[in-house]
Design brief:
heterodimer, A: mainly beta, seven-stranded mixed sheet, about 55% strand, B: mainly beta, 11 strands
Chain lengths: ~110, ~110
């Protein structure tokens, strides 16, 4: 158990809908990272927050957004969902803003029908 | 940007054999190279990592080697066991660089 928690574990929704994925980092970690894992794309970095501020952006679509709250939990919002958004979404956390020693949560499996 | 290539994509070994997975990276500024193990239905688990000021690191049956000149690093698992069966990912980055992951190696250890 990495200490990173993610909810929900599974999510099934329809195209065009909006969902919110939630992540709580390990105790003491200030950075949260979001990754998307699909069968043909591997682990793709989406976005990083450090102590409430956006730190780095990867290949995140404009339909996706995230935020980190004062208690350091983070939410990833996915809107206008398309079939191709079906994937595993992982959250990871690390102690500092530098991307060393990232610990991953169990993931949320999103299925868009 | 950084690009990480990982080989092989699948690896089958007999229990007790050694397994080696290799990765190459493109960005000479990368200074951190972690390895993750992902079991079915779980998130990636950090199993070992190495920084660019070190050439080799060992932790029991696993070891990682880094050749900065050639920009490649490898994971070595000795005395493999069935519970080592999983998908292994390498990554490169560090500091204010994002981690870029390889495409994964599916390791199957047969009893």
């Amino acid at each position: 158990d990495s200490g990173v928690t993610q909810t929900p574990k599974h999510l099934i929704t329809a195209t065009g809908q909006r969902v919110t994925l939630r992540c709580s980092p390990r105790s003491g970690d200030l950075s949260v990272y979001w990754y998307q894992q699909s069968l043909d794309q591997g682990l793709q970095f989406l976005i990083q927050y450090y102590n409430g501020e956006e730190r780095a952006k990867g290949n995140i679509l404009e339909r996706f957004s995230a935020q980190q709250f004062p208690d350091l939990h983070s939410e990833l919002n996915l809107s206008s969902l398309e079939l191709g958004d079906s994937a595993l979404y992982f959250c990871a956390s690390s102690l500092s803003g530098a991307s060393y020693e990232q610990y991953f949560g169990p993931g949320t499996r999103l299925t868009v029908t | 940007g950084e690009n990480v290539e990982q080989h092989p994509s699948t690896l089958s070994v007999q229990e007790g054999d050694s397994a080696v997975i290799k990765c190459t990276y493109s960005d000479s500024a990368s200074n951190y190279f972690p390895w993750y193990k992902q079991e079915l239905g779980k998130g990636p688990q950090l199993i070992i990592d190495i920084r660019s000021n070190v050439g080799e690191k060992k932790d029991q049956r696993i070891a990682v080697t880094l050749n900065k000149t050639a920009k490649h690093f490898s994971l070595h698992i000795t005395e493999t066991q069935p519970e080592d069966s999983a998908v292994y990912f390498c990554a490169a980055g560090g500091g204010f660089q994002k981690l870029v992951f390889g495409t994964g190696t599916r390791l199957l250890v047969s009893p």
